[in-house]
Amino acid sequence: MHPKALLDACTELTRLLLRFEHPADSVVSKYFRDQRKSMDLGPRERSVLAETVYNVLRQKLRFEHLAKSGSGVRERRLAILGWAAHLDAQAKQLQPQAKHGDRGFMKAAMSEMEFKWLSDCDAATEDDFLAPHRHNLPPWLAEALQSQLADDFWPLVESLQQTAGLDVRVNTLLAKREQVLSQLQASGIQAVPTPHSPWGIRMPAKPNLSKLPLFEQGHIEVQDEGSQLLALLVDAKRGEMVADFCAGAGGKTLALGASMRNTGRLYAFDTSAHRLDALKPRLARSGLSNIHPVAIAHERDDRIKRLRGKMDRVLVDAPCTGLGTLRRNPDLKWRQTPEAVAELVLKQTAILAAAARLLKPGGRLVYATCSLLREENEMIAQAFSQAHGGFEPMPAADVLTALGVEAADTLCTPDRQCLRLWPHRHATDGFFAAVWQLT
User: Fold this and answer.
1) Would you say residue 38 has pLDDT above 90?
2) S-S: 320 plus which of 104, 124, 263, 371, CB 3.0-4.6 Å?
């Protein structure tokens, strides 16, 4: 594909994404589908397009500041900066000290004036930028994270500017981690065990796994290590009655089913039948038969009420802002608002209270989010504990230690009560979890 055509495509996709009408991944996927007949988009072109526009989303304020010094269509200037950032990242993978990547192919797409402008942008130093240009966060979110992290705020910011690697969970019903690691390495894929999850494998290069026999046979599922640790906290056992209250596409459901060794009964509840449909092919690969997907209208659905007091374990992976996934979904920081957070807090409170009613005495409740915000995490957990005296908080660090997780204290809040994972500290997405036992 000619570089001029590729830059034009990057410009158009940037324009579509900056409308913020739909999630970025769905916009990119639709664009690729729509252009299938009219444009020759091979793996290389798709990679350039996706990484370019995601860089624009990650560094939007910085790029908009730089774009003011250029001329022409704004989205084209942003796309040029995003493409250059992609080349820089590639260069650093090969040579960590490299400052800028090879601009040769890209130069053919630009005018001499544009290339001169890009060179001037390359020469900018951190002293040329204000704090918002450096953290690239909306003010309300920057303030919220700075209040939590203090000096650790900037390391978080740096981690959010990077692309995330790829973690998979080994389906222990069908395979052992050591065997899967050997097979991946024999296929030429760089892979190492995750440092904390006993089921996890990490692949920095993000290979395409969909055609691997390991994937097709259900031996592995893509799942961030943090998400695996949430399922581990539930500690679902053989023969139990378990509910995944907000199952979505079922990543944690599958982990729970394998933990139960395909025995007992595991309900996968969700208000979206469409999301549950995405579980079906994964379930078919997994070899699990103890999972029962159930689409519900809301948390007060009669199908929920009939199971009241019958569950041994309940996981509530609540609907949330998703801000813990900013490495993968950088558009979320521009699409969320304080008003949306306030609405979610009401929903999370109601869902957790409804899910808690399913437990029988001695049962375990786990509340989790992939958010970085206290409002969705610690504050929800504290309010639940105050309102539900029969639920005894369990220190998450003790639970993880008992399950053989090394250095569990480093994964938790200072009081050891809650799991609290951060991208810059743990190389996972941002996750939170609190645990209770019904007395």
Assistant:
1) no
2) 371
Kindly indicate the confidence band of residue 97, based on its pLDDT and cuts at 50, 70 and 90.
Answer: confident
Beta bridge partners of 274: none
Measured between alpha carbons, how far is 270 from 298 in angstroms, rounded to an integer?
8
DSSP 5-71: HHHHHHHHHHHHHTT-SS-HHHHHHHHHHHTTTTS---HHHHHHHHHHHHHHHHTHHHHHHHHTTS-
CA 259 – CA 262 distance, rounded (Å): 8
Catalytic residue among 121, 370, 412, 418: 370
Of the options 3.30.70.1170, 3.30.70.20, 3.30.70.360, 3.30.1330.130, the CATH number for the domain spanning 166-222: 3.30.70.1170
Tokens of 214: 């390991």
Output the pLDDT for position 345. Answer: 98
Residue 402: closest CA among 247, 232, 261: 232
- Per the annotation, the verdict on 412 as an active-site residue is no
Cβ–Cβ contacts within 10 Å for residue 379, how many? 14
Exposure b/e, 167-191, CB count within 10 A at least 16 = b: bbbbbebbbebeebbebbeeeebeb
Interatomic CA distance for residues 39 and 32, integer angstroms: 9
Residue 302: how many CB atoms within 10 A of its CB?
8
Contact 260, 269 (CB under 8 A): no
Give the contacts of 204 (CB within 8 A, at least 6 positions apart).
165, 166, 190
Enumerate residues 6+ apart whose C-beta is below 8 A from 282: 221, 249, 250, 251, 254
CA distance 146 to 122: 28
pLDDT in tens, 293-324: 999 998 889 999 999 999 999 999 999 999 99
What DSSP state is assigned to residue 306? Answer: T
* Domain residue spans of the chain: 3-136, 166-222, 225-438
- The CATH architecture to which 225-438 belongs is 3-Layer(aba) Sandwich (3.40)
Whether this model's pTM surpasses 0.85? yes
Beta pairing partners, 202: 167, 192
Whether the Cβ atoms of residue 174 and residue 219 lie closer than 8 Å to each other: yes
